[in-house]
Amino acid sequence: MEPMVAIHGQGGDEVLQTAVQYGIKNILVYGGPGTRHMKFQEYVTLRMRIESFGLKLAAIEGGFSPDLNYHDVIFGGPKQDELIEDLLIQVRDMGRAGIPIYGYNWMPNSWGRAQPTIIRGGAMGTGYQYDWENDRRPKTFGEDMDEGTMWDALEYWIKAVTPVAEEVGMRCGIHPEDPPVPQRGGVPGLFRNMAAFKRLVEIVDSDYNAIEFCQGTFSEMPGEDIYEMIEYFASRNKVMYVHFRNVSGKAPAFNEEFINTGYVNMKKAMRTYRDAGFTGNFIDDHCPLMVDDTDFPGNLGGYRSRLFAQGYIAGVIESVKKEVEYGGPVDMSAAGKGASS
Q: For the CA atoms of 50, 106, 297, 133, what is the dihedral angle to 10 degrees?
């Protein structure tokens, strides 16, 4: 288990050097298949640039589903086969270029938030209130979309992409509906509960049909137990990597928190990954907005906020690893002194 930094584009020399200074080994880049086609050689160039800093391009994360040009894939429209073939060409190029993981989503409305929330020390976390959004949001496509049709299209896609992923050795996995609510703007949220992900991984039984495990979003799922979901999917090798963030509670109303102030016991969560046999990477994902912070070319949150989250993740990972080494819970201050003597 290792921490991982997520960046947009190529990040710039400063960001990659900062990752090295953090002690990070793995980089996730936001991008992947969509209207802007990156070709095989572009992926190779991206990978080699990251490797030139002594880092590994461990995953690409994106999503073609919010792109109107690909909605026939999501809803089973007349161009479904043509567009799937287009996407499979892009998937092949990524895999052949040495990208080991591709995380994507099935959210034509993209992710959603409502009013932000003031959290510890005046920092700002994103917030969500289902009623607030539902009262203000018109039908995205002018009508209610059919959930059964979306599932049919999803199954058609999984059966097409998984053999290609296996062929090129690149695992593909889906991010949960964010927020995990039944519908937004008349569009059903398929991946809003544990049952939906069980259904997903049963479409094709393959390690290459997996999950982009956004722990923050899984933690927001009403009626679900986050530790049970971690154990279930990680023990079956369905978790590709983790968005390790914390939230105040569950949908229909919640806000994002500092990593150590939400309702989830993050050390217990990390132990659960460990005990389930997970050996992959953890990104900080969304971080709160802090006073006078400096922009970071990643997801939400600047350098200060991200440094706090990355340090926390690294510390929790080291702590639960030491528990195995020492046969139980460890006083990390004592362990650190021992290591330096």
A: -170
